[in-house]
Amino acid sequence: MASNVTSQSVYPVTREEGDVQEVILAVIVDNEPGVLSRVVGMISARGYNIESLTVAETDVEKHTSRVTIVTRGSPGKIAQIKSQLGRLVPVRRVIDVTSEKDALERELALVKVVNSGENRLEAMRVSDIFRAKALDTTHTSFVFEITGTREKINAFIDLMKPLGLSEVSRTGVLSIRRGGNKD
């Protein structure tokens, strides 16, 4: 039984029945005006937050795009979201990346660090450990590019906070299957 939780949101926020899980959904859609709005609207109308969203055209000839969505919910609610997404007219296929054993997940982030002295040296040491690339260097700042799992990027950001973290820009999660499987 769901009980209401006090929230500042205009959407009804309820306590979930069962365990809440995070899922990554890859939604293959026709690349036409309004499709993203319909996909996002369907999820948000049910009171779910989209934690990450990436969209790009993936096949020019077929005129299709891939929408990668990260959200949370109970298994029943996630199944409902997948089912309702699959019924939208411009949606060709819904793939639950989380359940795929052969899926890769990555994210890209640009991280600006403003500092001087010993903190500059430490920022460079940390960036080397995380294999982050310095895209821009001035006498007072760095802009690093880092790719990897969300956990890796979050750890890098956490270590950069005391070293002068100034700004972060992230792509959101991207995913693809390994090997010869097609999405």
TrEMBL record:
Keywords: Amino-acid biosynthesis, Branched-chain amino acid biosynthesis, Transferase
Stretches assigned to coiled coil: none
Catalyzed reaction equations: 2 pyruvate + H(+) = (2S)-2-acetolactate + CO2
PROSITE patterns xref list: ACT
Pfam families linked to this entry: ACT_AHAS_ss, ALS_ss_C
Pathway note: Amino-acid biosynthesis; L-isoleucine biosynthesis; L-isoleucine from 2-oxobutanoate: step 1/4; Amino-acid biosynthesis; L-valine biosynthesis; L-valine from pyruvate: step 1/4
Domain of life assignment: Bacteria
Domain ACT: 24-99
E.C. designation(s): 2.2.1.6
GO molecular function: acetolactate synthase activity
CDD domains reported in the protein's UniProt record: ACT_AHAS (cd04878)
Record note on quaternary structure: Dimer of large and small chains.
Family: Belongs to the acetolactate synthase small subunit family.
Role, per record: Catalyzes the conversion of 2 pyruvate molecules into acetolactate in the first common step of the biosynthetic pathway of the branched-amino acids such as leucine, isoleucine, and valine.
PANTHER family cross-referenced by the UniProt entry: ACETOLACTATE SYNTHASE SMALL SUBUNIT, ACETOLACTATE SYNTHASE SMALL SUBUNIT 1, CHLOROPLASTIC
Xref: NCBIfam families: acolac_sm, PRK11895.1
Name recorded for this polypeptide: Acetolactate synthase small subunit
Lineage per the UniProt record: Bacteria, Pseudomonadati, Pseudomonadota, Alphaproteobacteria, Parvularculales
Annotated gene: ilvN
